[in-house]
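hi! just following up on the protien thing from before. the input was this:
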Amino acid sequence: MFTTSFTTRRTLGAALAALAVAATLGATAAQPAAAEPSHANGGTEASALNTYKLPFSERLYGVTPNAAGPNSRWLTWDEWAGWGYPQPTVTTHIPYTEVIKNADSDELFFATADGKNPLKINEDQWRTLGYPLPRNTGYGFYKAANGNTVLTVQAGKTSPVYVNSYADWVGKGYPTPVITDMGTYVYREPGTPDLYLNRITNGDCGSAYKLTYDEWLHLGAPQPKNTVKPPTSCTP
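and the predicted 3d structure came back as:
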């Protein structure tokens, strides 16, 4: 069940302040050469990392300049430490990043090339970035007014792509779900009390997922509108 109270991420502010002090001390005292950090990828072949920070966020972003293709990612504390706490460049133009929005929503997110954990931004922060044109992801997030299950639905489709777990929802940047009638996605098996969720699992093909009573309640106990059972499998 989603709640409005989330675990607060460890702030990087204290460590950044410590870096500033270390830089000042380094001007008057010689420092021993730092050892090449040991990275999770098991080597130093990708030893170059450019580190960036937005002016309105404490998140750090890493870009590997010698990578084969576009790359950018949000750096965790441990990853930043593993690279030796490199001083980030504060900028509004981080390579291989973009602003995105979801279908049926005006919320904006600052996203990296790997698509993980986008940062929700407000209008003032969007203005700071220079009002870049948002890319529509083509997917929307929906829930019932009295439910707590969030469905991801591709724009223009009548079947959810998947049911979001809490981790899925967090990984998408905590998008605010659009309130809708979940009965649009639920149907009753003719002649039976069984309820099914019509999901997209293979392109536009539907997959009949039988709902448990609790799952139906979490959807907001919708009255089913679809009465024709979709195929359980098909080839696009």
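Helices lie at 13-26, 77-82, 123-128, 166-171, 213-218.
The mean pLDDT is 78.
cheers
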